[in-house]
Design brief:
By secondary structure, the protein is α/β, with parallel strands linked by helices. It has 13 helices and 21 strands. It has helices at 4-17, 95-107, 120-130, 153-156, 162-167, 177-189, 221-233, 245-254, 280-288, 307-327, 342-351, 356-371, 419-424, and strands at 28-29, 35-43, 48-56, 59-61, 67-68, 70-73, 79-81, 84-89, 110-115, 137-140, 144-146, 172-173, 194-198, 237-241, 258-260, 292-294, 331-332, 388-391, 407-410, 413-416, 430-431. The strands form 5 sheets. It has a 7-stranded parallel β-sheet. It is globular and about 70 Å long. Residues 1-18 and 441-458 have low confidence and may be disordered. Residues 422-434 have a biased composition (Low complexity). Keywords: Signal. Residues 1-17 form the signal peptide.
Length: 458
């Protein structure tokens, strides 16, 4: 949600500069369909597999259903992938944002998302919308905690100052471990299974004395550790926003479950690139603690850095990603691009040189499973949820194929903007259990044809 106002202005200016497209119908979902996908190719997390796939009652099954609503022979040309997931955004956590961007998620093939700083009242309006069959599925964080001079107050307040910060209700403000314990009942009352903590420039306490930095800082390491302890005692999980490598270390010391932002995604204080470089020890600790890291490298483009500054940050990002991958740290795909989706992060990581198979696995398997644990997502085996995208070609060879889904299916339902197609999809059925039609036997040379019986009058 960094510089939310700026992002909204950017979105508005972009829309004003472009010709207005014709209004589109919202996505609708068909009834659950039975599918037979012959000669299919699909990405299994490592490579492309081949064979026949079958869907019944919203899941993949081992055998051909008795009745098939949609039979497709893919002839080994198109490729199926599971839908993408977005682990870090804020554009679906209000009713306004939902109206602007929900169909964009389906367009982009992003069926799963995490919104990391919603107000409980605003999220309550959105949850019924997110429950629709044609809607992206969303995990909401409704307890977003920072210091009384911390981020994102500078982004969400018209005039960021201590008085305005104290009066707002969207962000919880905590300045000490003692305050954390005092406010814990109110934090619990905001609901949700995750908390979001903000740790920003924790290694530079002198910044708190500078008015220019008001609303851009965050929790002290001690306060973050106490909030994490309280959350874990209560069975909740914690994701921490970080800026620098020192913040990353503080989040690990606190014991958080996930870290939002690869250090080096932004450089708002114009610091040396080394400030964002992760150590091997930090990467090893993150792996040992199973702390997931949400990448958000696409968000760097929002800051419009000049050539040398951008190049320096990208080099730090490459090094940090390589160090985390070498250590075995779980990575999650997230963009934090308010006017976009995970597809922006997919291409940003591709430009940084991440291996295509690894990248697609993060987008279609690791991230959805992290957002919705306990469900069988991101797979094509029997029992897996039958949600997939049909692409025109192999995304391992051409990642641009992900940008042009030919078909979107969610739990066996066809997603389409054409209401008549959604309504009629289940009407025409083909039975694969019917006995094959017998062809007439050839007459023997010189034989007499058997007279046909007269048709009975009905």
């Amino acid at each position: 949600m960094r510089f939310l106002t700026a992002c909204l202005l950017l979105a508005c200016s972009f829309s004003q500069a472009q010709p207005s497209p014709p209004p589109q119908q919202p996505y609708q979902a068909s009834a659950p369909l039975s599918w037979e996908l012959k000669n299919a190719r699909w990405f299994d997390g490592r490579q492309i597999q081949r064979g026949n796939l079958y869907v019944e009652n919203g899941v993949f099954v081992a055998k051909k259903p008795a009745k098939v609503n949609r039979k497709m022979d893919l002839r080994g040309q198109q490729v199926l992938i599971n839908p993408l997931a977005e682990a870090h955004n804020h554009n679906l956590q209000t009713a306004w944002g939902w109206g602007q961007y929900a169909d964009r998620y389906v367009d982009d093939g992003v069926f799963y998302a995490a919104m990391l700083c919603g107000d409980p009242a605003g999220v309550a309006e959105v949850k019924p919308l997110a429950a629709g069959a044609a809607a992206p599925e969303v995990s909401f964080v409704t307890a977003c905690i920072t210091s009384s001079d911390g981020y994102p107050l500078a982004a969400v307040l018209p005039e960021p100052n201590p008085e305005a910060a104290a009066a707002q209700k969207q962000i919880v403000l905590v300045d000490s471990p003692e305050q954390a314990r005092q406010q814990w009942p109110a934090i619990k009352a905001r609901g949700g299974t995750w908390l979001r903590l903000v740790i920003a420039h924790s290694e530079r306490p002198e910044l708190r004395q500078q008015l220019a930095n008001f609303g851009r800082l965050g929790l002290t390491p001690e306060t973050a550790a106490e909030l994490t302890r309280l959350a874990h005692v209560d069975g909740r999980r914690v994701v921490a926003h970080v800026e620098t490598a020192a913040d990353f270390d503080a989040a690990l010391a606190a014991g958080v479950d996930a870290i939002a932002h690869l250090p080096g995604y932004a450089n708002t204080l114009d610091e040396a690139p080394e400030v964002f470089a992760l150590s091997e020890a930090a990467a090893a600790r993150a792996a040992r603690q199973h702390t997931a890291v949400i990448t958000t490298t696409a968000a760097t483009a929002l800051f419009r850095l000049d050539g040398p500054a951008l190049t320096a940050l990208r080099e730090v990002q490459r090094a940090n990603l390589a160090r985390l991958q070498t250590a075995g740290v779980p990575l999650l795909l997230g963009s934090d691009v308010f006017i976009g989706t995970a597809r922006a992060e997919l291409h940003a990581l591709d430009e940084l040189g991440m291996d295509r198979a690894t990248l697609l696995r993060l987008a279609t398997q690791d991230t959805p499973r992290a957002l919705f644990p306990g469900r069988r997502l991101g797979c094509f085996e029997p029992g897996c949820e039958a949600s997939f995208l049909l692409l025109g070609g192999d995304p391992l060879a051409d990642l641009g194929q992900v940008d042009m889904p030919l078909l979107r299916v969610k739990q066996g339902r066809l997603l389409t903007r054409l209401a008549d197609v959604a309504a009629s999809s289940a009407q025409a059925t083909t039975s694969t259990a019917d006995a094959p039609k017998k062809t007439g036997a050839k007459k023997k040379s010189g034989g007499k044809a058997k007279p046909q019986a007269k048709a009975k009058r009905r």
